[in-house]
Structure to design on (354 residues):
């Protein structure tokens, strides 16, 4: 088989019809138990001349100095190059309590070239409701590096205008949840599917008794739970390790036109059709024998004057992909074939081009 140079084709062909049991904690989450995003605006000081001199940065600096008892005359411009304005973001996990810490990310919003060596001053982090949930401060850790030459060249490694502070924010307020309220809870499937929801209900009822769980729709399953918070924790500890057989996903093909990556899921089929593409000839014949359950595929591929692809009914797409690869076709050819098959209505799968 010839290798395709310059392009990468990744084909995940799940040819096995068997299902794999997964833990409940890996395929579903509890409704209302989720992360919350925090956002803040702050100043980074101590930069080695790589800061910005934007008007909003100067205004923020004057405002901060004023709160600290230093009043600058209105006509005085600090013209400092060691200060940068940044946005600070963090994720507030569920059940986190005041006094615990969060990792934060600081990103320059001005013309600062690098945040290396800077210190983030105390920055309140607010939620969508405008309330302060954490306070951030500390020395920045920059994973990028930037420099410049006299000829105008500016080589860089990663992004030096973005930095992190591990454990740089202290939680001041926790987010209330409905975890301990009511006599039931709802599991939301990460990938909604009627079959998986049905199997989840059967698994829970088979483990805890009939009527414990009831499917709401393809995404949600309601489960009766103890009202006491301590008992509920023990109850969920049992449930989250319960193994459930997830249903096979819908037939889908994902094509990344920028990288040449093609991902093909299980159950992709091709209906009777014919395609002309370049100077390649691909013939795939499927012979269903009466004396056997299995189907034998006779695949031939060649390059020459003939230009017709012929696909027999029900041929699996992996056979077509393998055949196209055997003649040394590029992923671009494969993408063109897939798009043509989809337009003709012969491809029994969802085609996603990203």
């Amino acid at each position: 088989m010839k290798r395709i140079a310059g392009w990468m084709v990744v084909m995940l062909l799940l040819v096995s019809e068997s299902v794999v049991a997964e833990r409940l904690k890996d395929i579903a989450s509890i409704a209302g138990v989720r992360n919350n995003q925090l956002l803040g605006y702050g100043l980074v000081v101590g930069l080695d001349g790589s800061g910005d001199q934007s008007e909003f940065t100067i205004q923020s600096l004057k405002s901060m100095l004023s709160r600290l008892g230093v009043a600058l005359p209105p006509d005085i411009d600090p013209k400092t190059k060691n200060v940068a304005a940044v946005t600070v973001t963090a994720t507030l996990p569920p059940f986190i309590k005041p006094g615990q810490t969060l990792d934060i990310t600081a990103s320059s919003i001005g013309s600062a070239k690098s945040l290396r060596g800077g210190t983030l001053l105390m920055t309140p982090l607010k939620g969508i409701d405008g309330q302060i949930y954490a306070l951030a401060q500390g020395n920045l850790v920059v994973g990028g590096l930037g420099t410049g030459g006299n000829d105008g060249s500016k080589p860089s490694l990663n992004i030096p205008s973005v930095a992190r502070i591990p454990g740089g924010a202290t939680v001041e307020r926790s987010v209330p949840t409905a975890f301990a309220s009511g006599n039931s809870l709802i599991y939301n499937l990460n990938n909604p599917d009627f079959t998986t929801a049905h199997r989840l209900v059967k698994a829970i009822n088979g483990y805890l008794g009939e009527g414990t769980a009831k499917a709401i729709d393809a995404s949600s399953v309601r489960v009766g739970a103890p009202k006491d918070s301590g008992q509920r924790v023990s109850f969920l500890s049992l449930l989250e390790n319960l193994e459930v057989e997830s249903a096979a996903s819908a037939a889908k093909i994902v094509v990344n036109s920028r990288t040449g990556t093609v991902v093909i899921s299980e159950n992709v089929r091709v209906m009777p059709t014919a395609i002309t593409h370049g100077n390649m000839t691909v013939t795939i014949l499927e012979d269903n024998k009466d004396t056997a359950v299995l189907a034998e595929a006779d695949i031939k591929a060649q390059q020459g004057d003939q230009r017709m692809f012929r696909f027999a009914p029900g041929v699996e797409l992996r056979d077509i992909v393998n055949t196209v690869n055997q003649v040394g076709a590029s992923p671009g050819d494969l993408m063109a074939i897939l798009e043509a098959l989809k337009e003709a209505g012969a491809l029994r799968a969802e085609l996603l081009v990203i």
